[in-house]
Amino acid sequence: MGMVQKRKKMHYGDTHLQRRWRVRNRRRDLDQIDDDMRTRSRELINQNVDLDKPGFAQFYCVHCAKYFIDDTAMQAHFRTKVHKRRLKALETEPYSIEESERAAGKGSFQKPKKRALETQPTKEEAAAGKRIKLVELPEEDATQDDEKMEEEAEDVEEPST
Q: Which residues are within 8 A (CB) of 37 and not within 5 positions of it... i.e. 6 or more apart?
């Protein structure tokens, strides 16, 4: 009868590998994506053919900063939770240097602006001239909110018999 075979370890840990995995899975930050949407969205949607990138760089999601192999994969991505969460995260204005200075006490506080976003246009729509829309939503005044609350309170009190 033989001895129980022990598994041989090739190395003591994978800490030297974790650094490589962390860098490889790094995605663009929200402020970088916001800058891309404002300045070069048309350029990113209509890229030149690059044989090194998936789908030859013809199918790119500007919001997620991700390449896809074909149009069906990209359209399926537009319906996923990952894409919808990214759109939701991009609705608020990205963190800026001015905001950090206000947080440190150099200036007065301002709420980040909300925006309405739509999913990027397809290649055909982009060729026709459709662009990514970044529409800033107007802020509701506190007085309007107070008026709405008073109206709701009155509506609740009326049904008494």
A: 62, 63, 90, 132, 134
The whole-angstrom separation of Cα 99 and Cα 110 is 8
pTM: 0.67
Task: Extract the tokens encoding 74.
Answer: 């990209």
Answer for the pair 53, 67: CB distance below 8 angstroms, yes or no: yes
Which amino acid appears at position 58 of this protein?
Q
Task: Retrieve residue 41's tokens.
Answer: 């969205």
Instruction: Decide if 87 contacts 119 (C-beta within 8 A).
Output: yes
Residues 6+ apart with CB under 8 A from 119: 63, 78, 83, 87
State how far the alpha carbon of 8 is from the alpha carbons of 4, 11, 12, 82, 115, in Å: 12, 9, 11, 40, 56
- pLDDT by residue (tens digit) across 71-112? 999 999 999 999 999 999 999 988 888 888 888 888 887 888
Q: How far from the centroid of its chain's Cα atoms is residue 78's Cα?
A: 12
Cα of 107 vs its chain's centroid, Å? 28
